[in-house]
Amino acid sequence: VSGPVPCSIVGIGESRHGEVPGVTAEELMAEAVLAALSDAGLTTNDVDGLFTTSAYYWMPSMTLGEQLGIAPRYTDSTCLGGSTFVSFVGHAAAALSAGFCDVAVIAYGSTQRSDGGSLVSMSESSQFEAPLGYRYPLSAYALAAQRHMYEFGTTSRQLAEVAVSSRQWAQLTPNAFAREPLTIEDVESSRVISSPIRLADCCLVTDGAAAFVMTRADRASDTKRGGGVPLLGFAESHEHRHIGEMPDLVNTAARLTGAAAMAMAGVSPHDLKLAMLYDSFTINVPLLLEDLGFCAKGEGGPFVSGGRIAPGGDLAVNTNGGGLSYTHPGMLGAFLVTEAVRQLRKEAGDRQVDHGGLALVHGVGGVLSSHATVVLGA
Amino acid sequence: VTETLGPTRTFDEGLRSGRLIYQRCNACSTSFHRPRLACPSCGSPDFTWLEAAGTGTVYSVTTVERPPPAFRADAPFQVALVDVDEGFRAMGRIVGEPVSIGTSVVFLADQVDEQSVRVAFEAVSS
Q1: Chain B contact for A183, CB < 8 A?
Q2: Listed residue (A32, A7, A221, A36) closest to A95, CA to CA
Q3: Does ipTM exceed 0.95?
Q4: Chain B touched by A289 (CB under 8 Å)
Q5: Which residues of A touch B64 (CB under 8 A)?
Q6: pTM, whole model, 2 decimals?
Q7: CA–CA separation, A77 vs A98, rounded Å?
Q8: Residue B53 scores a pLDDT above 60
């Protein structure tokens, strides 16, 4: 499988996150971009590729460019939901490979928590689904979870294990938003929103921003980060937009993107000890572990049980606490990348894992709709 | 101006008249529910509109306890994905008795208000 010319992530940055009143989404995003550029030893004057999407700004790369005084040669405001920023790793690599830009900044930011604490979205309502009054996107994930339980015997307790494992990682992460102790009983006694999904099965709603900088590998040595974190594999896809059109609720397009990205990187799931998986809801984690090949189809429930994805477990999943406990400002993808890079640079403090120099990042957008897999090295 | 209804409006008109209509590809016989200009399986733009009897089986279902504000008075209620016997999957409200995966159901047009009708299903009493 051929890929783009070698590219690297040479800088990462995050804004303050959690609850950050008094600032706009674009300001938080700019805060993250400036941190990422500082991390790379670059300035806004070096940036000639700009990638962002938003639920706040109709033409978000223009808004961010204007805010930072960046007039890019290459600009991309593609919206694929929360997975967008994982897809942007590949889109930026393609643009860098083609010579359309030399320094790409990928960024996201929002103030969802300060704006009322529920999902801010420009998502259009579906002719079929909106009149039914279900909770978008939550109920769509609930339908997938219900089907997974029916076909494979997956239990609410197993889903609760995902939330508890995430919380244990967050307790090792000083700036995670939710760090108070959480037990399986706490999760199972939280109120049902749309069965079988309970409140504690859902990601956080926070303010926050994250950004990262990519260059071709031949330019990476010019940055403060030397060679940076190399991109080894990438793939993206989508098979549907609405949950009613998803061919099979227990098989996602991660089957395709995981296999393709790992083939490009020349690795298999057995080689991986660190996975950053988009956990908007707890059901995502067993579903993705199955579809990415970490376990057989239907075995995701047992796989996440007994602390196997918690600190000290067999596979480190979402080492900062993920969307469930670290942060989730509407879209998580950029934060999956920044945490993977921190781990690969061995800057993860108490939660540092022995990853063998490999990490897999998988983004999900919409209602299990868009998928993007990235394999990074060290 | 000649008004030609596109597939979406055609479906809507059918639902407003109390019928669950769907498209069937004349080239490969694939049935599809989401209105389209061409078959999602083979790409043929040659299709026929048919009316479904509306019987089917629940593929998945969720009980919505905390809906968006506009629907709070209805809660709790069920929303299901139903595999309709004619070969397509449709999402609908469940009216009447609660259902679970595998329950046999039948389509009904649920008149929400003067303006709108939504897809609904109810359990077939055995």
Answers
A1: no
A2: A7
A3: yes
A4: no
A5: 133-135, 139, 193-194
A6: 0.97
A7: 18
A8: yes
